[in-house]
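Need tokens for this chain, all 476 residues.
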Amino acid sequence: MKEINLKNVLITAIVGLILWFIPTPEGLQPNAWHLLAIFVATITGIIAKAASMGTMAMIGMTLCAATQVLAPGDPVASVTNALSGFGNATIWLIGLAFFIARGFIKTGLGTRMAYYFIQLFGKGPLGLAYGLNIADLLLAPAIPSNTARAGGVIYPIMKSAAVNMDSHPDKPETRRRIGAFLTLSSYNANMVTSVIFLTATASNPMAQKFAKDFNIDITWTSWLVAACVPGLLCFFLLPLFLYKSYPPELKSTKEAPAIAAEKLKEMGPIRREEWLMIATFIILLVLWVFGNLLAVDATTGALIGLCILLLTGVLTWEDVKKETGAWDTVVWFSSLVMMGSYLNSLGFIGWFGDIVSNQLGGLSWQWAFPLIVLVYAYCHYMFASGTAHAAAMYSVFLAVGISVGVPGTMLAIFLGAIPTLLGGLTHYGHGAAPIFFGGGYVEMRDWWKQGFFISVLFLAVWFFTGGLWWKVIGLW
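Here are the structure tokens for all 476 residues:
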């Protein structure tokens, strides 16, 4: 596959050069404005797919070092600052979690869990949807790539179940039998499970890191406590909503449990490696949930989990080296976080936040809060990645909200969830979207239509149920 799109590379370069040569606005340092030009060009290249995310990130880091925007007149410091993202513990938490996730896939434990829940709940379309979704929910804390969960575990089983019930993507008259319903349910549930846990998708820790720049400390547990009530309500409402809005033609799936039972029989009893994976998973959850009490931070907990898997032979060092998704994430995540952090420290975020907050005039934070969230949310139509959305806009909107008095932790977590929560708006809205859309069960117009309806449902739940819950736990 061709990685470089020369036309889009040219567009990206033009965008960056135009911004670079625009006179620096009053009240802002020139190097902050030039860093913005590099940052915007990098995000533009990622959105336009001028090159892979890793390639664009590496180009962005190189330009930061070569132009010395991070340390004018000091080339050594400029390089050091450009590479500073690689020293961020949050970034390595995500990389480590990718390695641990390989254990679920390699041992077959993730697949076994999915078939088990189909066997348990799969007698009807709703039960089948909930069975697949519960498997995703249980895997979410340990598999930080929602794309890996979707592509490596959930989607293959979902499609197998649909085909076994005579719903084929290459036979248009059978798509709505059950395949289309399961596609939208499984994909959007993947978005929901990804916002409940801090480690369930890469954009969550990115939001955590940017929030830290505003002295807002979000831990694995505090994220879970804030997100669990609105997240779980969305999780349970989603299949019911789709059952009314986009119903399957098939109303009974009595054969699904038997098919799942046969697959489990073929897999045989739980093997030693799977038991070790379960034990490691439990240890990780304990370390992540009670890390503050045990004086163990989340990254250290992930290191302990990986070492257990390596020492017990569940994973080998070869497995770690071959986990290209992890190393790719560490590279592009480090670059985007580095640029986002320096935009804040060089004063751009505060400067822009002051401009926008002045435009909001005398609005109280209760009125400004939904306005900020809704504008930020529906900007997701422009993005093909939750991470790109967070990298480009999170800090700015958080700064604006804080400047008008919105409670910081509440806003930080809500804004952190949105790039993933609204990943169903389009067929390109998140990493897992091309997997499910590419299955061929759902037409593009139906995907966009249902995606918008689901976004309204999710935002309503987070605003109202989430708002009440956040009041109870003292976030506002």
